[in-house]
Amino acid sequence: MTETGYNFAYLDEATKRMIRRAILKAVAIPGHQVPFGGREMPLPYGWGTGGIQVTASLIGRDDVLKVIDQGADDTTNAVSIRRFFARVAGVATTERTAAATIIQTRHRIPETPLREGQILVYQVPMPEPLFRLEPRVAETRRLHALADYGLMQVKLYEDIARLGHVGLSYNYPVMVNHRYLMSPSPIPAFDNPKMHRMPALQVFGAGREKRIYAVPPYTAVHSLDFEDHPFRPIRADARCALCGSDASYLDEVVTDDAGGRLFVCSDTDYCGERQARQRRGEAA
Amino acid sequence: MNGPILAARDLHLAFGGLRALDGVSLDLWPGEVVAIVGESGSGKSTLLRVLAGQLRPQSGQVTYRDAEGVAHAVQSLSDAALRRLSRAEWGFVHQSPRDGLRLGVSAGGNIGERLMALGARHYGRLRETAEAWLRRVEIDPGRLDDLPRAFSGGMQQRLQIARALVTGPRLVFMDEPTGGLDVSVQARLLDLIRALVAELDLAVLLVTHDIAAARLLAHRILVMRRGRVVEAGLADRVLDDPQHEYTQLLVSSVIAA
């Protein structure tokens, strides 16, 4: 079912080379945003145009692709991007985290720990972590250049002064390699610790803003905090209704209009494998 | 460590045909308060901005001697070095609190920002420091979490001073700190600045058009006109026995109550 008339993985080779150069530069300077000449992709901005261009530049014929959207393999965004690459690159796709070599993700890091050789590609709506605090783009670049991140710390201070805790549950800013402040894309703060010294390469693509940044394997990634108000990953205090996990990140599902609700794993692959293992256990 | 903390030699800066600085030199010694007075447009604010490294002179030299006694040529410092100096060793008090404060950030956050930029990461201690500084500038510590928007003009100005002094700078630039305040508030603010300057042994460059404020605060006075320093000397000498005709005009035009 591979389409003819397209170059392998949709983008032309010159574009892929330009994007690969940006990725190499991003890997060389962990957490630094590298501009690239973003192309129009056959999907709207906000649907993963940055991630899809990074994936298209990285993917080879032997790669196995997994795409997740909010942790799920079966939502519109994930299904259509996976099918897109199956058609224009003819690569194998999978829903299993362990079997994939490239995982494109929107808003989650898989629960199954990633290993060396895998690449995690994030879709990023807004790459600039300071954009709500400093409206001038030129000034944010100067702040990055001078590693002047007092402003972000002031924001955390204000949150604690007003709310008693940091009021960020997703897109929680991190310091990469003790140097650059980075937006981890809107993943839950719960996933932040997984970025720290991850064996897999992490590449972030922002299509609308035309920026690429990266965290190479085994790079230090620290969530900003105060010594007496340490960073706490937030998780719903419940077990998954399907697989019983008390360690995974949970989605809250409203089941009726009488206040009924249940919590299920947001990572469908992780949940499904746990359920399969439990069924095998019962059968044995 | 001997020698002036800040020395400027033969500064020139013209905006088109307008000579904002025309051969200005000055020395500022540790612990000394020097006032720069002159009418609007005489170049005094431009001089302050050049000395603080915010503007580059067309010719001339500004030398700052840091806490270790190392001399820096201010006009050729890199952005990073200048930022480090202005964060760690300098303070700047603006005429309008809007320029010196973050109005959308609480008083505590405003005072803590410079500390956090220098690496302070302990929330409790930051608050203690901010509270102590509020007390020092005579603001009720109970207003730690209030926004500066809710403060009066005088309080905003005192908060700005606390924010500038919290990191223990050696050199403070003040640009008309009492401008736009009513007389009684001005008097209190001048009192406060005088006490803090003495207590912390600060070197201060004060730009003002208020001769009375200069007399109260300054050890020495420089009188500027059309980009030139027309007279300089001890504050009392300049004000009691003005030599230059322009200084005589300035001193005689002070309205006595």
Automatic annotation (TrEMBL), chain A:
User: InterPro entries of this UniProt entry?
Assistant: PhnJ
EC assignment:
4.7.1.1
The Gene Ontology biological process annotation of the record reads: organic phosphonate catabolic process
The portions of this protein that span the membrane are none
Which Gene Ontology terms cover its molecular function?
4 iron, 4 sulfur cluster binding; alpha-D-ribose 1-methylphosphonate 5-phosphate C-P-lyase activity; metal ion binding
> Function of this protein?
Catalyzes the breakage of the C-P bond in alpha-D-ribose 1-methylphosphonate 5-phosphate (PRPn) forming alpha-D-ribose.
UniProt protein name: Alpha-D-ribose 1-methylphosphonate 5-phosphate C-P lyase
Q: Which organism is it from?
A: Caldovatus sediminis
TrEMBL record, chain B:
Q: Name one GO molecular function term.
A: lyase activity
Please state what the protein is called: Phosphonate C-P lyase system protein PhnK
Annotated GO biological process = organic phosphonate catabolic process
Which UniProt keywords are listed? Answer: ATP-binding, Lyase, Nucleotide-binding
- PANTHER family registered for this protein in UniProt: PHOSPHONATES UTILIZATION ATP-BINDING PROTEIN PHNK-RELATED (PTHR42764:SF1)
Q: Which residues form the ABC transporter domain?
A: 6-251
Name the NCBIfam families for this protein.
Answer: CP_lyasePhnK
The answer to whether UniProt assigns keyword ATP-binding to this entry is yes
Native source species: Caldovatus sediminis
Reading the lineage from the top rank, the first entry is: Bacteria
Q: Which Pfam families match?
A: ABC_tran
